[in-house]
Each structure stands twice: as C-alpha cells, then as structure tokens.
Amino acid sequence: MSFFEVTKFLLDGFYVSLLIFAVTLLCGIPLGLPIAFCSMSKLKPLRAVSKTVVWIVRGVPLMLQIFIIYYVPGLVFGTPVFSYIDKYILMNYGIMDAGRVVAVMIAFIINYACYFSEIYRGGIESIPRGQYEAGYVLGLTKSQVFRKIVLKQVVKRIVPPMSNEIITLIKDTALANCIMVSEIIKQAKELAATKAMIWPLFYTGVFYLLFVGLLTICLGRVEKKLDYFRS
Fold first, then answer.
1. pLDDT of residue 75
2. HEC profile for 114-135?
3. Would you say the C-alpha torsion 174, 175, 176, 181 has a positive or negative sign?
C-alpha cells in the first residue's frame, strides 16, 4: 500500500474516533450539570446517590465500563442488545459496527458526564457566598442570581480543566478498539496484521497531534475571550 492509501485507510478510522468524540461532548457536557446539582443537593439521599455514582464511574477504568455496557445486558438479560443493533443496521443500511459504536458512546457519555459534573461543582462552589447575598439584596431570585452573576464566572473558572478533559477525550477514543470498533488504532493494527506494516501504528500519532493542536488553539481563544473576568 502507498502512503496515500494508508492515510485514507486510517482516516476512515479517525472519522469514527471523531464521531465518538463529538457525540460524547454534545451529550456529556449538558448531562454533567444536572449531575453536579444532584451532588450539591440539600436532599441527602439524592446527594448520596449522585456522589456514589460519580465515585464509581471515576474509580472504574473506562475500558472496563465499555465492557460492562457492551456485554452485561447480554449476560444478565440474555439479550445481546448491541449485537442486534449491529446486525439490523448492517442488513438495512450497510454500516458496520453501529451497535458497538453506540455502546462505546454510552460508556463515554456516562464517564465524561461524571467528570464534567465534578468540574462544574468545583466551579460553582468556588464562587464566594457574598455574591449570592448581593444578588438577593438587589431583589434577584435564586435562579436569576445563578444565571446573571454566578454562571459567567463559573464558565471562566472551568474552561482550563474542561479543556484538559476535552483533549483527553480525543485520545481516550482509542479505547473503543477493545470491543473491535474500527477507530484509527484498530485500523492501524489491522494493517500490521494483514500487511505486516508496523509504521502506520506510529503514524496514527500524527492524526492525534494535529487534532489536539487544533483543539488547543480553539480552546485557547475561548479562554482569551473570557479574560474580561480577570481580576
């Protein structure tokens, strides 16, 4: 295979990595906020359940969570849900690995939503109590204080840790190959196994480096736009 043929073959896998990345962000970022509110709730049972779930998700390796999501429904209920999704979509739409990709997305969304929730919680709790009280004195409701006073400051404070998690996410998509999803690392391993070509495995690093570089520039610009909150 030529260099351009290898690049095209790896790009097919990188599209899958980018799909997992995009869906995880679109679902995980908003999902993290209600989880954070539950972790800060005054209702002790709700707070305890939320913190326990976050503790378990953050404590168990993401690869193991992917295995749990993909295999446990079949083991417990005797119904390999994602295998059925694989077969159905392959037969009707000709798309391979759809069920496996869905399982990976679910695992990633749950995992990253819990991480994002802790970032949100830390940002919200870092705002001085006096700012809430000042808002109440001005006649604002609790929700208005949060939206008009607290939220913008929280966004500024959480951008750096969120940036780190987002950059980590694109690299974590490589874990999808543990259930044979055809992301870029699996594509490179396939070339190594079938064509005895080991260099494409190292070449995948270029794809990650370029995308991480683009992310770093974009997130850096977002951070600069929020500089008006600097004291």
1. 84
2. HHHHHHHHHHHHCCCHHHHHHH
3. positive
